[in-house]
Prior knowledge:
Blueprint: E1 8-19, E2 31-46, E3 54-58, E4 63-66, H1 75-86, E5 95-101, H2 111-126, H3 133-148, H4 154-160
Amino acid sequence: MTPRPQPATGSASGKVILFGEHAVVYGAPAIAVPINGLRATATFTPAVDPSSELEIVADSIALNTRLSNLATDHPLAAAVLETLRSLAIPNPPAGKLQVQSTIPAAAGLGSSAAVTIALARALAASLSRELTPHAAAHIAQSVETLQHGTASGIDPTVIAHNT
Length: 163
């Protein structure tokens, strides 16, 4: 009997910018710190049937669908695709990716970067790939730029370097 594939989990904290909130986008200095009490978590459970597709579940936004059903610029699809590109994985793995977050969205606390980094960490772990903080920040920065246009990089940097 083949052992059932084990789930892999990744998480990432929120962050708060104490000084320089908007000016940092234009290259001015800022001070930001992680908020460990607020976290995004992603768990990837490999499918038993390798011909299955990648299913993404995010209850907080009432999402339960296959990756192939999402536009490539959807935040979660973009995070998955950028992670796979960064890890040199040509095709999405078969399984279920469950995303949860206690970080309020659109509150300036780094929710989108944290979700991307948690998701990237879960996928990398499930594929037995190393994901450095620098690589995680780069993935999140790419997704942040796609979603928000100009992005300073402070959210991905602070969040990715906090474990």
